[in-house]
Structure formats: C-alpha cells, structure tokens
C-alpha cells in the first residue's frame, strides 16, 4: 500500500483518542456533543451551554512532531510540510475565533490522552465547573 492510500484511511472523526476521552467523560457522568458542525472549527467534543470546545489532536497532523522534532514523511516532503503548516495555522485561527466568541478551547495531544487521561479529564472538569 502506498503512502497516499494509507493517509486516506486515517479518520478525521471518531479516532481512538477521541473515543478514549469521550468514554472517560461519559463514565464520569458528563454529557457532551461530538463533532459539533455548527461551531467554528468543528470541535471533537463540546459542551455548548458552557461554551467549551475540545479538540483531540494527533501529533503528526497538527504539527507537534514537525515543530518539536522536524519529522516529516521522507517522500513528497514539500507537500507534507505545507499541509502541516497550514493545519497549524488553521488551529491557531480556530482557537482565536472561538476565544473571541467567549469559548474555552481545550486541545489535547494524542499522547496526552493515551498516557495521562485523568489529567485531561481533570482539566475539562475544571473548565466545566468554572
């Protein structure tokens, strides 16, 4: 399978990190909306009444690997660099617009969710209770 076919298979919603975070919130009794299309940036999880938008970001697609380690695929490097930089700029624009509209924006890296789920949940609960 070539890289293009592989990348096409990667899901944009209901990823393993989203599901893990959602199940933990549900287990603790918190009810939310998922993939909120009527909110700018389409948060993975949102609490509309509290104006909390939560994004579960993979390190590759949202640029952490690139910014911290310079990691890019070895083929078609220019394409991937432009794409990842565009994603980083989009995330910043989404954060700015939502914050200007009074939303609390929480972004969690995939490894944060996988390795420190309780810390992520605590940050969300603190935002909900404020």
| Arithmetic mean of pLDDT | 89
In N-to-C order, the SSE pattern is HHEEEHHEHH
Strand content: 5-15%
SS-based class: alpha+beta
- Please give the largest β-sheet: 4 strands, mixed
CATH architecture: 3-Layer(aba) Sandwich
Which fold name is given in CATH as the topology?
A: Endonuclease, Chain A
The N- and C-terminal alpha carbons lie at a distance of 48 Å
Instruction: Specify the CATH class.
Output: Alpha Beta
Spans of 5+ residues with little confidence (pLDDT < 50)?
none
Mass-distribution shape: globular
**Domain module tally:** 1
Structure, described:
- By secondary structure, this protein is an alpha+beta fold.
- The chain has one domain: VSR Endonuclease (Endonuclease, Chain A, 3-Layer(aba) Sandwich), CATH 3.40.960.10.
- It is built from six helices and four strands.
- The protein has helices spanning 3-8, 16-27, 64-69, 77-100, 110-115, 117-129, and strands at residues 33-34, 45-47, 52-57, 104-109.
- It has a four-stranded mixed β-sheet, sandwiched between helices.
- The relative contact order is 0.17.
Give the topology.
Blueprint: H1 3-8, H2 16-27, E1 33-34, E2 45-47, E3 52-57, H3 64-69, H4 77-100, E4 104-109, H5 110-115, H6 117-129
Helix pairs in contact: 2-6
Care to give the gist of this entry?
This protein is α+β, with helices and mostly antiparallel strands and about 130 residues long.
Q: Which features characterize this protein?
A:
130 residues; Endonuclease, Chain A; 13% strand; alpha+beta; four-stranded mixed beta sheet
């Amino acid at each position: 399978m070539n890289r293009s076919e592989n990348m096409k298979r990667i899901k944009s919603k209901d990823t393993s990190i989203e599901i893990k975070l959602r199940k933990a919130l549900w287990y603790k009794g918190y009810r939310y909306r998922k993939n909120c299309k009527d909110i700018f940036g389409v948060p993975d999880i949102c609490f509309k009444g509290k104006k909390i938008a939560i994004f579960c970001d993979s390190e590759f697609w949202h640029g952490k690997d690139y910014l911290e380690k310079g990691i890019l695929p070895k083929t078609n490097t220019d394409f991937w660099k432009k794409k990842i930089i565009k994603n980083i700029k989009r995330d910043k624009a989404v954060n700015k617009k939502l914050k200007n509209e009074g939303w609390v924006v929480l972004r969690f890296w995939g490894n944060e969710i996988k390795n420190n789920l309780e810390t992520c949940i605590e940050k969300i609960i603190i935002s909900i209770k404020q």
